[in-house]
Structure formats: C-alpha cells, structure tokens
Design brief:
about 190 residues, mainly alpha, about 75% helix, 9 helices
Length: about 190
C-alpha cells in the first residue's frame, strides 16, 4: 500500500482539529483590552493544545519520511491516533471554560496520555512491518523522551486533584520536551 493517502488524510484531520480549537474561542463583544481578560484561560489552553497538535504533526511527518510501506494494521493504528488527537479540542475547550479545574485537567491529561500510547502503537506497527533493522527501529529504540512523557502524564492525571497547576506544568514540560523537533530519525537517515 502507498503511504501518501494516509499522510494526506492525517494532515487534513490535524488541520481540522486546529480549526475546531480556534472556532471554540469567541471574540469579546466589546473592543477593549479589558474584555480580553476573561478569555485568557481559553487562549492559554489553545496555545498549549496548538503546540501539542504541531508536535504530533511534526513527528508524524518525520516518522513517515522513513516508512517504505504500510498495511491495514498501520492504517487502523493511525486512525486510533487521530481519534485521540480529535478529542484534544474537547479537552482544550473544557479546561479553558472552567479555568483549569481538576476534572477537566485530569481528562485533558488522559487524552494526551492516550494520544501518546496510540502514537507508540502506530510506531510499533510500522517497526513490526519494516523489521528490526528499519531506520525507525534504530531511531526510537531507547525512546527516553517517550518514557518521560508517559510518566509525566501518569503523574499529572491524579495530581490534577491535588493541584491543577502541577498538572499544567507537567503538560507544559512534555510539550517543551518535544517542541524541539525530534532529530532521531534524521540522524539515522544521515547515517545511510
């Protein structure tokens, strides 16, 4: 199977996700700077979620640069990833509207955790198809950033009930960890 349709579909879904998130933020009825103040939580949650969608788009793009073939299992794994990413606008809206309250923050973390798990599943399906000597396998074999991310999410979900701000800092930490493009795949490509 050709990977181009999978990439194009994924790009389209991610673009729609970003569009949905910004449409959730309503412009104030007044034209003063003061009227923007109530929108600060919604804007902050949008910025964080936009960064996450951008990170997933960037890493998905890098991963599929080295993919030679796909199969049905990879198609469904990609759909599973897109499902969890499509829930980010819901979580974004909820944490923004409720000013980072505990339950919305924990659900947001669960969505991020499941997106990370589904990305790992997709990655592993690709490695299984392409073999243990594939570029992707060599690039991600240690996956320290992935393990740190999963740990942060696992901690952030229950910590939202202790302090939503701690959860928020953990979500920001993971985003900052990944905001610098993951060069592991490019390093493997350059070795060829």
């Amino acid at each position: 199977m050709n990977k181009n349709r999978l990439e194009a579909f994924s790009d389209g879904v991610l673009a729609i996700i970003i569009t949905i998130m910004i449409l959730e933020i309503k412009a104030p009825e007044e034209s003063s700077f003061e009227s923007l103040k109530p929108l600060i939580p919604a804007l902050l949650s949008y910025v964080l979620s936009f960064a996450y969608i951008g990170i997933y788009w960037n890493n998905h793009h890098h991963m599929f640069q080295v993919v030679k073939k796909i199969n049905g299992s990879i198609l469904w794994s990609n759909m599973f990833l897109l499902f969890w990413l499509s829930l980010i606008p819901f979580g974004t809206s909820w944490i923004g509207e409720h000013h980072f309250a505990a339950v919305p923050m924990s659900i947001y973390g669960f969505i991020l955790f499941m997106a990370a798990i589904s990305y790992t599943i997709l990655q592993n399906k690709i490695i299984k198809l392409e073999g243990p000597d594939s570029i992707l396998q060599k690039a991600v074999e240690k996956d320290i950033k992935g393990k740190i991310s999963a740990t942060c999410y696992i901690l952030a979900i229950p910590l939202a009930f202790v302090s939503p701000w701690i959860s928020g800092l953990l979500y920001i930490t993971v985003a900052l960890l990944w905001i610098i493009p993951d060069a592991r795949i490019e390093k493997q490509i350059n070795k060829i």
